[in-house]
Write a structure and sequence with these properties.
It is a single chain. The protein is an alpha+beta fold and 115 residues long. Helix content is 51%, strand content 13%. It has four helices and three strands; from the N terminus they run E-E-E-H-H-H-H. Strands 1-3-2 form a three-stranded mixed sheet, with no helix packed on it. Helix 2 crosses helix 3. It starts with a strand and ends with a helix.
């Protein structure tokens, strides 16, 4: 993945993807390039690794999880801007989060009993 790297005095790394798909990585001066690359590759793969048990959730909750993960392609955090992106697509995303908080653990228990 091609990206523009901006170094600064910041203490954490952040990835921004604009509407044209341009990727900008903001990283601390002290973070080695190899660490920046590893972070980006990890985040790039995370969108492709959704738990199969998500299929047990209602379709609107599955949609929310996918949109949530896609929003991370623009904002690699849970900032106000991140949630605004989610809300553009799923205005009632808070209801979906509430469902996951209420029933998500129950679904994950099924996986534990299968192991």
């Amino acid at each position: 993945m091609d990206y523009k790297l901006i170094r600064s005095k910041r203490k954490s790394i952040a990835i921004e993807i604009d509407r044209e798909g341009t990727v900008t990585v903001r990283a601390p001066y002290r973070m080695p390039n190899v660490a920046v690359k590893a972070f980006i590759e990890n985040k790039q793969d995370s969108i492709r690794k959704l738990n199969c048990l998500l299929m047990l959730a209602p379709s609107d909750v599955r949609d929310y999880v996918i949109i949530h993960e896609l929003a991370h392609r623009m904002h690699m955090n849970h900032s106000k801007n991140f949630w605004k992106e989610v809300e553009i697509i799923i205005p009632d995303y808070k209801e979906k989060r509430k469902w996951l908080n209420t029933y998500g653990e129950e679904i994950m228990q099924r996986m534990r009993t299968m192991e």
